[in-house]
Amino acid sequence: AMLEIRNVQKTFRTDAKPGLHAGIFHRPGARKAAQELQVLRGVDLTVEKGDVVAILGPSGSGKTTLLRCLNFLETADAGQLILDGESFDLAHANRADIARLRKKTAFVFQNYNLFRNKTALQNVTEGLIVARRMPREQADAVGMKMLAKVGLADRADSYPRQLSGGQQQRVAIARALASDPEIIYFDEPTSALDPELTGEVLSVMRQLAEEGMTMLVVTHEMGFARNVSSKTVFMENGVVVEQAPSRQFFADPKEERTREFLRKIA
Ligand code: ADP
């Protein structure tokens, strides 16, 4: 397998506000009851090269948190990731590990995360120039090629505010592609978009899928899961309930919870 994910666990802890009498009754541990929310309860996944994996599940089931843990945007409490034979401890990463992993991965956010004060081209080339120390002319050439790939060569000099949401997300995808990643993580890439703009983003993603790009996609787009992804994963309450080749997943789900979910969204 190209990517193996083992036993990812994550609990969010929020300290409750100390009560009115906190200073008076000094019982350490008693007055500062921490709220704990176990969001990931041991997630395992295997991704082959060229797989497009759609991750489905009800809101709050831990999908986004899983994706963020996989790229060290959150620190997991436990978990191991093996990418191309290189192993990473998701609970104990140092700067070098994070840099080493992110050299091979890219992340596309729900809200694009573009620099407002940079043009489309500058957004795409920034990482190449700053993090990878690529000469500007070379970075510009890569950037233009990637903007062309997402159908935005003619908008290279536009600023994000001059672009539609769908165009901004396509710039974000061009930026992800520019770093030549082994795998791209997409976190609900179309859920901030008006319905008429989701199509252009999904069609770029479909094109990448056809070209063999490995992708892990948290999504609510059933059409994408059913028709584009090679594998579908259903998560609920921090665990993977069912995973199967997408055709099989939709035609013949094995778990009752999966069937119920599919009935509800159908
Ligand atoms: P999904 O993507 O499946 O909707 P999330 O991973 O976004 O689920 O969230 C899972 C749960 O974790 C939710 O209950 C959410 O409120 C909670 N959560 C997410 N991020 C944080 C955080 N930074 N601090 C505390 N709770 C969080």
From TrEMBL:
Q: Name one GO molecular function term.
A: ATP binding
Q: Supply the InterPro entries for this chain.
A: AAA+_ATPase, ABC_ATPase_HisP-typ, ABC_transporter-like_ATP-bd, ABC_transporter-like_CS, MetN_ABC_transporter-like, P-loop_NTPase
Determine the domain of life of the protein's source: Bacteria
Q: Does the keyword Iron apply?
A: no
Subcellular location as annotated: Cell membrane
Domain spans labelled ABC transporter:
3-262
Membrane topology type, per the record?
Peripheral membrane protein
Q: Keyword annotations for this protein? A: ATP-binding, Cell membrane, Membrane, Nucleotide-binding, Transport
ATP-binding as UniProt keyword: yes
| UniProt xrefs under Pfam families | ABC_tran (PF00005)
Coiled-coil regions listed: none
Q: What is this protein called?
A: Amino acid ABC transporter ATP-binding protein
Highest classification ranks of the organism: Bacteria, Bacillati, Bacillota, Clostridia, Eubacteriales
